[in-house]
Amino acid sequence: MIRTILGAAVGLTLGVSAAMAQSFPDRAINLMVASPAGGSTDVGARIVTSIAEKLIGQPIVVVNKAGAGGQVGWTDLVRQKPDGYNVGFVILPGTNTTYLDPQRQALYTNESFTPIINHVLDPGVIWVAASSPFKTLKDVLDAAKAKPGELKASTTGILSDDHLAILMVEEAVPDIKFRLVHLLGSAAQMKETLGGNIDVSFDNVGSIVKQAQAGQVRVLAVLDTERSKFLPDVPTFKELGYNEVVSSSTRGIAGPKGMKPDVVAKLADTFEKAMKDPEHQKKMDEVGLAVKIMKGADYQKYFDDLHAKSKKYVEWAKNRQQK
Questions:
Q1: What's this model's pTM, rounded to 2 decimal places?
Q2: Is the pLDDT at 3 greater than 70, yes or no?
Q3: What sign has the CA pseudo-torsion 10, 13, 16, 20?
């Protein structure tokens, strides 16, 4: 009798859970973006949600919660109920570095999130102003080698993917060392570099592609395994004869830990269909953002692998600051 009652109770619980997942969503979904409106993550989020909400049958509201390099938004995200109604964009390795840096005292780790689906993989680039005397990557690296620590190389923020990319380049090319200049985002970086205050800058394709096409900047190398379709004439770091350096900013959707698998699957499938929609692809191409879909086990593995990779370079960056 007890076994029968327990079995019925378990069956009822599973039935209720399945019914809840099947009815999801029955109201609007909030999609948090941990950066200001108008940035590349925000632009991509609004493009994909405009299509996804039609597929899922409920509004998907983009909510910007900027501050502390994304930490404000990601802290808020992990505090939400894991019911699928509050999800958000994580930016890797930016999300990783906020909790890997002990000074940030982040209230989350990589295990605080439920990865749902990746949206964008924006490769790193090395670029200079069009007026720069540096015509090639070799020119830059030779100058960094000739005067270690003097050539000013800018990032879009401390422990950003651009910061880590500089450390990777210093590791890949013997005897070079840049003078790091950390700026507050791509707009500030563009202003300072075009103004002649920065020798070379590290950022991502999506941030500089329009200026490159307009002839304002010269892109010297792409930090990926293959050339960017938006900058087909720019070689990869490895093509230019150096050890391979791969750096990117990936933007994907995640929720707080503890989400039900059926709800995760429904969100992932909906956003995947939206990302594969020709209208979505056309609009993303127009803004220079490369779509890279990863979901399920593949996205979880990417999440975990990047955590391990970021940990190494964050420790290196902190040690360098202390010297």
A1: 0.83
A2: no
A3: negative
